[in-house]
Amino acid sequence: MSSAAVKRIMQGLPLFLLLGWTTKLFAPNLATKSALIARDLDMRIEIVSSGAALWKQLLLPVFTVACIIYIIRSRNLLRAYMSVLLPVMLLGLFLLLSYFWSDAPSDTMRRAVRQIFLFTSVAGAVVIGRSQNRFVTYLQFFSVFLLICEAAFLLVPWISFDVYSKFTGLHQAKNEFGGIAGAFLLISVCIYRYYAETARERRNALLCAGGWLVLLILSGSKTPMGFVFLLIPLILLSQHFVRYVSISMIAMWMMLIVFIPIALIGIGEAPIEFYRSLLPEEALTGRGGIWYHLLADLKKNWMFGTAYGAYWGVGDIPEALDIKWSYYRFLHTAHSGFIDLCLELGVIPTVMWLLAFLSFLIVTRNASDPISTTLIAYGMLHNCLETSFLHGLHFIWVMMIIAIMNILYTQAKKPNLDAHFRAIRDAKRNPDAQPGG
């Protein structure tokens, strides 16, 4: 193997390792699926904070250090790394500051620090991969590799199918696998539509998309399936249409959590009762009921929430969900990333987050990056009915960070047009001047 090939492999290794970890590629679920779930519903269940094994906690810091060691060898790479990292680290700083009003300070600190290391490691993987313009190639290679691994689990149906005959692949549940399959299906469609330059590349992208589509259908995961079928026609038409999906989601949630409640309060109506009349509790496979119970808790800390990481997985079950004989007692997310943001960060920071993200989409509207635009739109849709925003190392959240930093890298590497045109003007004024003279 030539030294150039080894160098290319080493440049793609950070992205491969990061995606492999977040997709459970290195730790697949090998437990036989069973319908027997022993739970004593009469016993008071307490959700306790549990830290991961030490080696898992050290992976992100070690990964970050390794990326930085590679990056600091080049001043240009280091400059690009800081350019893509700084905007996201502002979010990390706010997560750390929430420690001071947290209901569970130690959990907030631990989970905030993990997010900061996630930002720094993702930035390193993106900058190293983009520095040789092979980012899409690395992403496609991992997509094919993971597809083969997931498809291989079809040979062991007692492991890869749940008790309802839904395909789960390497994962514990169909929804976890469905979110991953949906993302890589969209990536394959983007590569076919915008990046493939030869007939062979288009054929490979089409085969990859077909494989992910089959596995997604086998999973029966309705949420990612519906969003994927919504986005694919938009991708094929124009990447700009996909971007409008993200903007529409921001506008919709701003209406739901700000403008409509203010208007209802102004006329003397209760917002929760208004929404309850529109959406029955049993709607969306029971999500309506979950949301109404959680909104009752939101009243206590509506301005700044309980602080990051201080609602789920800490102390006793939230009072609003402490209902005897109820499956609500086993929840670990709100099944809506936007509602979870309000619960943990409060309504005001959630609104600021949405406005900041809207500004990002507007400022980078000319960035020709279909994959990143699609992943952001997919994440925004996914978080309507599931939770991945700031949710540990959730795959959809990691892909959104990758997409954001990929666009930021494109912005950071744009040429300084003012300096370029100034050089042209100087050359016209001094046509006899020699370069470097």
Mind explaining what this structure looks like?
The chain has 17 helices and no strands. The chain is globular. It has 437 residues and is mainly alpha-helical. Mean pLDDT is 84; it is low at 36-50 and 415-425.
Give the gist of this structure:
The chain is an all-alpha fold and 437 residues long.
Features of this protein?
about 65% helix, globular
Helices and strands in order:
Layout: H1 3-22, H2 54-71, H3 75-97, H4 105-130, H5 135-152, H6 157-160, H7 174-195, H8 199-219, H9 222-237, H10 239-266, H11 271-278, H12 283-298, H13 337-345, H14 347-363, H15 370-385, H16 395-412, H17 417-429
Helix pairs in contact: 1-4, 1-5, 2-4, 3-4, 3-16, 4-16, 5-7, 5-8, 7-8, 7-9, 7-15, 9-10, 9-15, 10-14, 10-15, 13-14, 15-16
- On the 0 to 100 scale, the average pLDDT is 84
Spatial extent as radius of gyration: 23 Å
The helicity comes to 55-70%
> What order do the helices and strands follow?
HHHHHHHHHHHHHHHHH
Overall SS class: mainly alpha
Main pleated-sheet profile:
none
Strand content: under 5%
Distance between the termini: 44 Å
User: Regions with pLDDT < 50 over 5+ consecutive residues?
Assistant: 36-50, 415-425
Query: What's the helix count?
Result: 17
Total strand count, please?
0
| Gross geometry | globular
